[in-house]
């Protein structure tokens, strides 16, 4: 990848839109970030798209943490941490061995299974966190795996937080701190695999304003979002993302 990719105006417009969606997803609706993954993967070389998007996600994380710093459930984050670390390591191995088509299909299947399980559990349960240690290990390891291989851990963890029936701000605050920690932990893996280089960093520098605008818009929208709409939107965005990855 050259220091700055030679792209047509339409591609730059799409990348700017994807950056805005990154910011909005971090402060309002986590599941829609799958759209950004799709845009980056369609325009940039697969490996560089993952690295470039990771840096923008970290910028979005900073705004989300600032906006919802008082709303995180730290017991939930700490309970998930060991499984997530294992998932990250497995994802790094998988990323080094698998081709792009396998990565997309595996993640798409995982997301659909997680959505189905979450909907089923909400139907039979009156509330509370997902069932014990097994759920923490399952969601945590899948979240670590999917976020490592394609920055697609948001939909998996959204299903976990949704199953826990978190209010909007508790959901967003827990997700903000969770992914801020996870995405920073991914940096050494990504650099070691050559996913981040000077070219991707220059590209990110040009796209950061879009992330900031999206994050501010998302903060405004979240303050006006009803719980029922939020829950349905998270589920819908996750299903659409899974279907795209499979197709």
From TrEMBL:
Pfam families per the UniProt record, alphabetical: TauE
Topological category with respect to the lipid bilayer: Multi-pass membrane protein
InterPro entries hit by this protein: TM_pro_TauE-like, TSUP
Spans traversing the lipid bilayer: 51-68, 80-98, 105-124, 136-154, 166-185, 191-217, 229-246
Keywords tagged on the record: Cell membrane, Membrane, Transmembrane, Transmembrane helix, Transport
The UniProt record lists the keyword Transport: yes
Keyword Manganese part of the UniProt annotation: no
Location(s) in or outside the cell: Cell membrane
Broad class of the protein's primary localization: membrane
Domain of life where this protein originates: Bacteria
Similarity comment text for this entry: Belongs to the 4-toluene sulfonate uptake permease (TSUP) (TC 2.A.102) family.
Protein name per the record: Probable membrane transporter protein
């Amino acid at each position: 990848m050259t220091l700055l990719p030679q792209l047509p105006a339409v591609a730059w417009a799409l990348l700017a839109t994807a950056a805005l969606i990154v910011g909005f997803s971090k402060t309002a609706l986590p599941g829609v970030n799958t759209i950004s993954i799709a845009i980056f993967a369609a325009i940039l070389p697969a490996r560089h798209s993952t690295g470039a998007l990771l840096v923008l996600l970290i910028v979005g994380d900073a705004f989300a943490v600032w906006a919802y710093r008082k709303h995180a459930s730290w017991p939930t984050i700490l309970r998930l941490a060991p499984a997530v670390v294992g998932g990250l390591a497995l994802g790094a191995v998988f990323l080094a061995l698998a081709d792009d088509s396998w990565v997309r299909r595996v993640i798409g299947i995982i997301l659909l299974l997680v959505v189905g399980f979450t909907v089923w559990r909400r139907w039979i349960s009156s509330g509370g966190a997902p069932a014990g240690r097994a759920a923490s290990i399952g969601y945590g390891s899948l979240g670590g795996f999917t976020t490592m291989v394609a920055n697609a851990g948001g939909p998996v963890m959204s299903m976990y937080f949704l199953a826990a029936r978190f209010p909007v701000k508790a959901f967003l605050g827990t997700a903000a701190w969770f992914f801020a920690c996870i995405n920073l932990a991914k940096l050494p893996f990504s650099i070691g695999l050559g996913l981040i280089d000077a070219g991707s960093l220059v590209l990110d520098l040009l796209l950061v304003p879009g992330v900031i605008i999206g994050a501010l818009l998302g903060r405004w929208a979240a303050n006006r979002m009803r719980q029922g709409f939020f829950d349905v939107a998270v589920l819908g965005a996750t299903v659409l993302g899974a279907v795209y990855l499979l197709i």
